[in-house]
Prior knowledge:
The chain is of the alpha+beta class. The protein folds into 2 domains: 3-101, Roll (Class II Histocompatibility Antigen, M Beta Chain, Chain B, domain 1); 114-205, Immunoglobulin-like (Sandwich), CATH 2.60.40.10. The protein is built from 3 helices and 13 strands, in the order αββββαβββββββββα. The chain has helices at residues 3-24, 80-101, 216-246; strands spanning 31-37, 42-48, 51-57, 62-64, 114-119, 129-138, 144-149, 152-154, 158-160, 164-165, 171-179, 186-192, 200-205. The strands form 3 sheets. Strands 5, 6, 9, 10 and 11 form a 5-stranded antiparallel sheet that branches. β2 (42-48) and β3 (51-57) form a beta hairpin. The chain is globular. The protein starts with a helix and ends with a helix. The chain crosses the membrane at residues 216-241. One of its GO terms (cellular component) is MHC class II protein complex.
Amino acid sequence: xxxRELLMKMKxxxxxxxxxxxxxxxxxxxxxxxxxxxxxxxxxxYGLDGEELAYADFxxxxxxxxxxxxxxxxxxxxxxxxxxxxxQQICKGNLQTARKVMKEYPLEHVAPSGVMxxxxxxxxxxxxxxxxxxxxxxxxxxxxxxxxxxxxxVTEGSSINVPYxxxxxxxxxxxxxxxxxxxxxxxxxxxxHLALTQPLTKIYEVEASARxxxxxxxxxxCGVGLTLGLLGVAAGTFFLIxxxxxx
Length: 247
């Protein structure tokens, strides 16, 4: 082999080894940054491993960090919000260009594939809690979520996060409602989306539980035990009578 041919072979080998290393490397973490805009709204969000780390609130004019208080607090460097504002200007310029290019392209609408309502903590009567309405599998973003208590609309204590992208290209959003459970109260979250002809509604009813009413559990078990005992006595009497008839 000539020196030139030898060098070419070595380059090919190094390229092959580099590809092997790239393919075999394990992914430890996945981070994501999203910039979106419309004529009247905008979104800049940062996430890590499927969790929302921060987003720009253009109404409050600040960067919001929605992590719960029990995790280590994480913040980005100074100027993060200002950069988000600048990115919005670029996004809106690109939006106008895209509209001209894709003027006749129809927008696909995908209705939410899943809506769930549940409490953050175990329910105890009179103790503050949070209702969560989890909406996923929709496109495009966002959805609108409204809450009711006993068929009356509720806005105080409600919030909704910015849309989070799923791996299949759809989105997930979570709405929360602060509430104090009282027996018999009925809550609902109604989800509206471009692909829906009518809202998707999920119901949550505050019901009695063994923890919220200590007398319920023992009463139920005593009732079941008494019933089984009576059944046992009846069955024994039946077989005793039959035995006497045969003899």
